[in-house]
Amino acid sequence: MSSVDVTIQTILSAGSTGVSGSPFATRSTCNSRLADAPWQFDVLPPSYGPGSSENDSIPANSPRQGQLPQEYRDASPQELDLRIRAAKHALGERAVVLGHFYQRDEVIQYADFVGDSFQLAQAAKTCPNAEAIIFCGVHFMAETADMLSRVDQSVILPNLAAGCSMADMADIDSVSECWEQLEEIYGTEADADGRVPVIPVTYMNSSAALKAFCGERGGVVCTSSNAAVVLQWAFERGQRVLFFPDQHLGRNTAKKMGVPLAQMPTWDPRKPMGGNTAATLESAKVLLWHGFCSVHKRFSVAQIEQARKDYPGVRVIVHPECPMEVVDAADAAGSTDFIVKAVAAAPAGSTFAIGTEINLVQRLGGQYPQHTIFCLDPVICPCSTMYRIHPGYLAWVLEAFERGDVLNQITVPESIAVPARVALERMLALAPATVAVKA
Ligand code: SF4
């Protein structure tokens, strides 16, 4: 199984008739500019770059990446490989490289740990000698790692433009405005059972400022693995929940817990009262922020039907960031960790159609050749923001650290980190974190 980079190059050089991760693929990729080096986008006005989030609007104040020095842009893959390995060898335990499941294989090959965002942040804690934590993921993940690491450790994001379009859909100003409106509507007094009007719950995929917002207001963080446990905790303490930024994870989880759809209105921050009537808000149990992941939004019921037609007996597993209809039509839904474990535990000869980011799906295909594994989405369209990390940036930050320079450091001020840790600790008390896999 070749990497996604190689697949994209093959498709484009063959004039859109190459191979793909899916046996029934239309053999295409979503944007031919995926073949361009990511530094070509660093000098342009901020954008998420080609890939699944390319049509999402990026906040004007998004972190920008300056131009990568010429020597790294000019270096061949072989030269970068030698330089990264040499820098890692020289640094030894002083630097740990973390690779998210959705990261490209060309970067994952250098990772000391591979996992989801929270697993990786926890993994960094098991490296007491690491002075640099180099997070090959996206911005909110590096923030979480910074908040959970020691003050003398530096968290480095190799490309500052690696944000997350979903996390950017909820910013502190619009959530604070929403909260003010909710206080006007529901008041601030607890009911006879001691339950406050609203508990804020933020998905891990959010800025540190929003985690702090939750920590300061009796709220909590959740991951896609523990969202049900966290929501149960919130329902015991609040009459309703404000869930952000991913409406799909919130809806899919609460629906499974028996909350009727009519009691889960969506809150659109661009509209007064979130676009809802007073009656709808009165009966609401979960207010779902109007956010989504553009990778997981691409999956459809039609793709599931096609997979079942082409592969009788196929097991369809999707991520809970997918739309509700897709989760309902699948055989199972769960976090990246759930998907990885389901594939690992299956008997040889199993067939999986998987609804999550293409890099993870193709990697699983390579790791488990005894199975048939393909991505539900027939178009190769990676997470745009993970794709902004390239070996060139990794070589740049590693060599700089070897010289004593800390580049692209992500630092969360203590005024935010302290309340954000409160929300994270509440989650950890409910559901201890699982550990990232040592690569
Ligand atoms: S896959 Fe979706 S939620 Fe994850 S980093 Fe990419 S845009 Fe964000």
Can you describe this structure?
It catalyses: iminosuccinate + dihydroxyacetone phosphate = quinolinate + phosphate + 2 H2O + H(+). Its cofactor is [4Fe-4S] cluster. Catalyzes the condensation of iminoaspartate with dihydroxyacetone phosphate to form quinolinate. This protein is an alpha/beta fold and 439 residues long. The protein folds into 3 domains: 4-32 and 296-380, NadA-like (Rossmann fold); 36-163 and 386-408, Rossmann fold (3-Layer(aba) Sandwich), CATH 3.40.50; 168-289, Rossmann fold. It contains 19 helices and 16 strands. The protein has helices spanning 4-13, 39-42, 70-74, 77-91, 105-108, 117-125, 139-148, 165-168, 172-186, 208-216, 227-237, 247-256, 278-283, 301-310, 324-329, 336-345, 358-367, 391-403, 414-430, and strands at 28-29, 95-100, 113-115, 132-136, 154-156, 196-203, 220-222, 238-244, 266-267, 286-289, 315-318, 332-333, 351-355, 372-375, 379-380, 437-438. The strands form 4 sheets. The chain has a 5-stranded mixed β-sheet, sandwiched between helices. Strands 7-6-8-10-9 form a 5-stranded parallel β-sheet, with helices on both faces. Helix 4 packs parallel to helix 18 and helix 6 runs parallel beside helix 7 (139-148). The two termini are 18 Å apart. 53% of the residues are buried. The protein binds iron/sulfur cluster (SF4). The site of iron/sulfur cluster has 14 residues, from helix 8.
